[in-house]
Amino acid sequence: MRLMESELDYWSAKALLEWQVELGATEAMLDAPIDRYGLEDQKPKPGRGPEAAPLPVKPKEADPVAEAQKAAQAAQALPSLRAAMEAFEHCELKPGARNLVFADGQAGARVMVIGGAPGRDEDLEGRPFVGQAGQLLDKMLAAIDLSRDRNVYITNVLPWRPPQNRDPLPGELAMLLPFLERHVALAQPDILVLMGAIACQAVLGKRGLSRLRGQWDQVWGKPVLPMLHPEDLIRQPQGKRQAWADLLELRARLNAQN
To answer: Is the pTM of the predicted complex or chain greater than 0.85?
Structure first.
């Protein structure tokens, strides 16, 4: 039974006080106890009432593809496009690469060769197709009277080397494709040659190089010829017969458009 104040004598009150001190009570705050559980319903709700603290606003993350499109479209010439690519900070490949691999050959040439991504040699020199595969490409082009020194322009889908020469990720291809599209528009070739599966995947959105090679396609208003990559031919020399047939097809198309 709860004791009323009038029922407590001095000694009982003193004993109760000493007991509370032993429990750790140091001072009396109020004359009546507070129901702490009942106070939960009285807390201000987020976003309600003048005293409610504002919720933190999470900054909107930049869309790499949209940023690439904006930067690419602002470029009015090849040098400004290269500068825009060098300033692009959304691709995680950039910090691990030694150089930006932009292009080689003759801008404005009728044939534009597009590879997938730079390798070790390309990363070191900052030019596409300069290693063993590049030497083979030069021989292939020379067989049909083409050369990067006279009438071919060469670039890659990716300007930076992926670590350990791994295949580019879909997100990397998507964010850098706007730069390639603008590159083609500014270089103004008559024909695009896609070297390898990565280039076909990025530009055409198609897989299965063995099925695609040698078959003309169309993209960005240009005729497109998929071909086996020179690295494929180094690993599998039996593919050179198919590559020779594709080169003859390219030469015939050029002659027909003269």
So the answer is: no
